[in-house]
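Students often ask why we bother encoding 3D structure as a string. The short answer is that it lets us treat folding as translation between two languages. Here is a chain of 280 residues written in the first language.
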Amino acid sequence: MELGQINTLEILRETDHGMYLVDDDDHQVLLPNRYVPKEFKIWDKLDVFVYLDNEERLVASTDMPYIKKDEFALLRCNQVTDFGAFLDWGMVKELFCPFMEQAFKMKPGGWYLVYCYLDEKTERLVASSKTNRFLDNRELTVKEFEEVDLIVSHPSDLGWNVIVNKKHTGLIFKDNIFKDISVGDKMKGIVKKIRPGNKLDIVLEKIGYRNIEPNSERILQELQDNNGFINLTDKSNPEAIKNKLQMSKKSFKKAVGSLYRERQIEIKQDGIYLVEDFLD
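And here it is in the second language, the structure alphabet:
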């Protein structure tokens, strides 16, 4: 039975306060009445989240949290006391973030990207907004041109810092950002380059000719949605292309070239036209 994680447990017995669940090692935990299913049988299996209640007792819940142990998530601060901040993580008992674990002083109503971990001293689940200390680039598990999972961490003068595969830190430079992103956003990216010191340069678009197919589809969809016409050309302002298609001008020109060679579009002075055979 693992604290802070989803556990699959068997129903052992009923009581006035709920029913007790048991794992393969005969460890038991209470599932309070509010979570007891309407229909069940002894020895049925349930997926439950196990954590500590307000009296620091082990308890199970069929509600699922917004964050589990060893995960990152964007959470709202509900209140701040003399002891620290308390965050809404979807459970009855709020998730505690001590002052010493706050990168910036938290305020009620604010949203913060945090990491949830088990504090060895108190044996409680706590949050930390000092997310970088839970990431490590010394031994990389990714390589160049690999697709990775990203969580947007925080902005910098160079662009946006991101969490890569929940393990490493990376950076998306400003020149490679073609859509609005915010702290906590989850998305896919590509490792463009590994610089000295194992610094990861990340892009949101696929690199080179790997990028043509999805961008071509995006342009075709935009044409379909606008009666077969887009008022963009290779002379258009990069900002106009970014606003309409969420891609760079370089990627736009490659995709347009590909569609033109396939005779799916016509290129005129005022913009791009979808060939009638492809117009719905």
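Translate back mentally: The chain is about 10% helix and 40% strand. Keep this in mind for the problem set.
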